[in-house]
Specification:
The protein is of the alpha+beta class. It contains 13 helices and twelve strands. The longest helix has 42 residues.
Length: 433
Amino acid sequence: MTPQSSFMILATINPAREADLRELLASMNHEPGLFDPTNAIAPLGDFRRLHFARIVILEDKTLSDIAVYGLPRVDYPTYLAFLGDCDGPIDELLAEMVDRSGEGLRRIFEHSDDYTRGADLLDWMKAHNVTSAANYVNWVGRTVRQVSEEELLRQALEKFIQENSGLLRTMRPKLARDTLRNFVAAEQQAGRLALTPSEPTPWGWQLRNFVHLLGIPILLLIVSPLLLLALPFFLVQLRRCERSDPVVAPRVDPAHANLLSSIEDLGVTNQFSAMGSLKPGLFRRLTITLVLGAIDYTARHVFNRGRLARVTTIQFARWVFLDDKRRVIFASNYDGSLEGYMDDFINKVGFGLNVVFSNGLGYPRTNWLVLNGAKDEQSFKEYLRRHQVPTQVWYNAHPGLTALDKRRNSLIREGIEKSNVTDSEIQGWLQLL
C-alpha cells in the first residue's frame, strides 16, 4: 500500500506584486474555475502521483470582526498557499516538481516577500511547507494510478457488456462473470488494460503509524488524572465563553458570493477554502489544538476507508494553523454542491462542526461545545460563506469521479481479481456494472 501525504507551501505576498500574481494565476486556467492541466507555468497534470492541488491567495475579509471584543484589528499579511495531496513522500514530489516545472514555480513564488531568483527553490519550498493540524484522506492507499486504471477497467467492461448484452443475458451469473474475467485477461495481455498490483507498504510509515496509534492513547492514559482534575475548570470556562462570545454572521456580500459561485459546480467535485480568526484568548487556542489533534488521530486510524464519521463526500481535507495559532485555514475537496455539502454535515455530524468551528470568531452560539451552533442553519451557512476565499487555481486528477465512484470501481476490480466467490457475491458484483 502506498500511503498519501499532503503539503502546503505558504509564503507572504509582496503587496506591490499581488495584482501581477493574480494575473499570472488566472493565465493557468482555461477560464475561472477551470484549470488547464497542461499550462506552461505549472502543468500539474504531468505529475502522476498528485490527486488534488490548489493555489490560493489567502486574503481574510473578516479581520474587522475582532472589534466585537473591543480589540483592535490585526492586519495579518496576505498569503500565497500552494496545497496538494499526493501518493508517497512529499519530498519526492516536490523534487520532481522543481525538476520538471521549476521555472514556472519560480515565476509564481517570486511574488512573495522572501523568494529571490537564484535561491534553491526546493530548499525554499521545504522550509515553507506547513504541517497540517489535522488531515483527512478518504481512502488511505488508493493511488492516482489505481483510480485511473480502475476507471478504465469499468469503462471497458461496460462497453463489452453493451456490445454483448444479448449473449450475457442468457448466461448464468457464474458463466457471465467468467466471460467478463476472460475479456479483462485478454485486454491485459494485449496491453489495453493494466491493473498494477499495490506496492509494499513502506516499513517506516508502518512503524510511525503504529507508534502513533498506540502512543497517543498511552499518553492520554498517563495524563488522565490531570485531565480529570482539569475537566471541571474546563467546563466552567467553556460555559462562560459560550454565554459571552458574540455571534457575527451578517448576510454575505453579494459580490463575494457571486465570485465564489462562479468557480463552483463546474463538475461533480468542488474545492472549498476557508479561513478565519480564532476567538481571542488561550482557552480557545488550547481547545482547538486538542480538538484537531483528536480529528487527526481518528482520521488516520479510524475514518480512513471512505467516510469521515457519516460523511462520504469528502475526498481530501485538512485544517492548518496560521499566525501562531491565531487563525486557521480549512481546505477540502468534496463531491456535490456546496449547499448539499453543508447540509450533509449539519444533518449528520452537526456536533462535529460545532466542536471545531465554534472556536472561530463569530460562530453561531453553542452549548456545551456540541449543541446548537450549526443547527442555526442560516447563520451557520452565512458564517461559512463569509469566511470562504476564492481558489485561484484548482487541479483534480480525476474530474468526473466522486469518492463513491472510486469505491465502486475498486469493488469491480476486486470482483475480477477474486478467485473464490459465492453466487450471491457474483450477483452483487454484476449489479455494480
